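Dear colleagues,

As part of the handover before I leave the project, I'm documenting each prediction I ran so the next person doesn't have to rerun anything. This entry is a single chain, and its sequence is reproduced below.
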Amino acid sequence: MTKDKHSEFKIGVTVLVAAIILVLGILWGKRVDLSGGDQRVAVHFEDILGVDTGSTVLINGIKQGKVDQVELRQDGAIVTISLDEAVVLYTDAVFQITTPELMSGKVINVFPGSSGEKPSEGHIFKGMPTGDMTVVMRSAGYFIEDLREMLGALEETINELNRTIADTTIREALIASAKNLDATSEQALNITRENRQKLSVIMDNLVASSAVLSELMEENSTQMTNTISDVGGLATSLRSSAERLDHLTAKIEAGDGALGMMINDQEFADKLAKTVSDLDSLIVQIQKKGIKTKISIF
């Protein structure tokens, strides 16, 4: 009886150990993290490239967490990952979606950073683009599409050019233009050949004139400097005179001073006009009748 119980106990222990090993194997195969994953981090990616819930998260290439949630947004997706609580991230941490092997699934590779500044609560990290095969193939697809459009445009241009050349009128005009251009080039070449010596003399004269002008400027540099200084002084004087004239004009317009009062006083202006009129009448009378004088001697 005792032996039977002992055998049953051994069998029970063996079954229990096997069950535990089986469960652990299944969890390991499903990449279930049993360490707790107490640290949750949010990362924004413009393109998650096939990352889904349960995808592995690597810290410097070592498995330290998994993807808990993927939230799609208009500008990409927010990926929430759980990491081992011992992992320390800084604000300059880098998150990249990579493919360790060509046929394997996507993983998020994390480089914790080195700034020493820890992120605030609720901080959302910015995922960086990666250069794995998926992105390369996608970029190649975009390039091929652009190349196809460019080739189509080039083909259309060539067809249009062929239609233009096929037009007899345009073809004859192009031939005539080419002949005229050839004749003009030949004439210009002949003129250059015939006047080569004259052109050489002209160039020599220009060089000599430049040398003389340079020497003249060096010899008269002091006088030129003085002249420029005098012109500057004259400009300053003119500016000062203009300012005084503006000041005087303003005083006259405001009625300040005798001249201002004379110009702005309407009564004085009327009297002055009457005096001028009387003087004009007197002159006319003198011209007609002359001047009669009466002299008495004491």
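The chain has a mean pLDDT of 77. Helices lie at 2-29, 133-166, 168-194, 196-219, 221-254, 257-264, 266-289.

All the best with the project,
I.
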